[in-house]
Amino acid sequence: MSSSPVARRAHLLLSLLLCGAGALGFLPSCHGAAEETPGYVTVSAASFKPSSICSAPDPAAAPPRNGRSAVLRLTHRHGPCAPSRASSLAAPSVADTLRADQRRAEYILRRVSGAGAQPQLLGSSKASASVPASWGYDIGTLNYVVTASLGTPGVAQTLEVDTGSDLSWVQCKPCADGSSCYSQKDPLFDPSQSSSYAAVPCGGSACAALGMYASGCSASQCGYVVSYGDGSNTTGVYSSDTLTLSPTDAVQGFLFGCGHAQTGLFTGIDGLLGLGRLSMSLVGQTAAAYGGAFSYCLPTKPSTTGYLALGGGGGAAAQVFATTQLLPSPSAPTYYIVMLTGISVGGQLLSVAPSAFAGGTVVDTGTVVTRLPPSVYAALRAAFRSGVAPYGYPPAPPNGILDTCYNFAGYGTVTLPTVALTFSSGATMTLGADGILSFGCLAFAPSGSDGGMAILGNVQQRSFEVRIDGTSVGFKPSSC
Q: Which of 70, 145, 326, 346 shows the greatest Cβ crowding within 10 Å of its Cβ?
């Protein structure tokens, strides 16, 4: 049971007095006190700084899975584990990252408030294939990438992983006008060099299934177009080819967009791997083999790796997850939506009207920081500031959409009140320090209106294995 706010504050003040005595020579001086205070977490201040040493595990160290599995070692494209073929392009600034993130969040909230078709849900698990995931800055947000091979012979492709997208695509030769493909380190995918490539014909069921992604036909080939929340877009020929996840796991006839014209914030990566809820996503296309279940673990830092797993983890393995119900999403069938019911700060539940959470929460790997209804965010911010205040960390200027920032220079450790997110059925994510702070700021922002949709961003998902199937979303901490 958590101690009372009065008891915690007394404990904090006593710790700070003892640290002050250390400055006078009576006791060892310290920064960041009360490591054992219930409802608080203390970490090294250095843990928030980028590492220049690769600490990624061997791919074989990924968690064992039921059925078949395939594991590929992946790295942050700008981190110390990056392979020699990784992009050499500079990462965007924090300001640019947060601006792009705001556009994406606004786009998601517009979509979930509109009209759409019922989602095509997926079935039960039969087998598994896993692909490690790593942190990638390259398309303008703090998103994650995997590497798979496309075509015959296979050509390695570094792809952003996105649970908020259905259609997968890569840049392809030829570019529409020679300048409509963005810069990437790898050569463009050349469909003429793959013996298993085929353009999807117009009039077929696959072309008809594109729905809002269709862009008409040209020379009897099915066209596609995808526009993203940050203003980026891709257009080209809807195609099929072999997608190889591992030496033993390949998806024959995988449907994807062969992009001949791209604009916007795409830089460095080769394309995108859609993990959305519709049947054209990787999850939907492999449902017969892997049952429509998948999981991922987003690494905490660019110097470490995570994984993406298709299928597996069912039965007894699934019981180690704290699970919450997956809700229907008629107006935005791409998204995975759950019900956030409460937030605790420092072990104390925020006093917020339940109606403020009524719009549900999108679980999204492509949004950086979690978005909350205004009254929920205001309560979280007030409780967090109150919990941090006794430590006297100097405030820092707001950073874009992040308004609660601190300067930890000169501190050996940083002590923060814990933040826990509780969902329907009682599933709870107690966040680590990397899920509470980002860029030195409280990694949450207000968005929309009370009773509207929230978004669970990728900062808060770091180190959790998140498992999604046709009925539920599960969370398992400290998984990568």
A: 145
**What does the pLDDT average to over 262-283?**
87
- Name which of 216, 219, 218, 224 is nearest 240 in CA terms: 224
Please tell me which residue in 101, 138, 186, 364 is annotated as part of the active site.
364
Closest CA to 321 of 331, 329, 313, 330: 313
What distance in Å separates the CA atoms of residue 29 and residue 11, rounded to the nearest whole number? 17
304's tokens: 């470490």
Whole-number pLDDT of residue 230 = 66
Is residue 343 within 8 A of residue 430, CB to CB? The reply is no
Name the catalytic one among 162, 166, 230, 434. 162
Look up 364 and say whether it is catalytic. Answer: yes
* Other beta carbons less than 10 A from residue 77's beta carbon: 25
Residue corresponding to tokens 């958590």: 2
For residue 450, indicate whether it is catalytic. no
Q: Is 32 exposed, middle or buried (0-12, 13-18, 19+ CB in 10 A)?
A: buried
Q: What is the pTM of this model?
A: 0.84
User: Which carries the bigger pLDDT value, residue 111 or residue 387?
Assistant: 387
More confident residue, 13 or 109: 109
- What is the rounded average pLDDT of the residues 246-251? 88
Q: Write down the H helix ranges in 245-302.
A: 282-285, 287-290
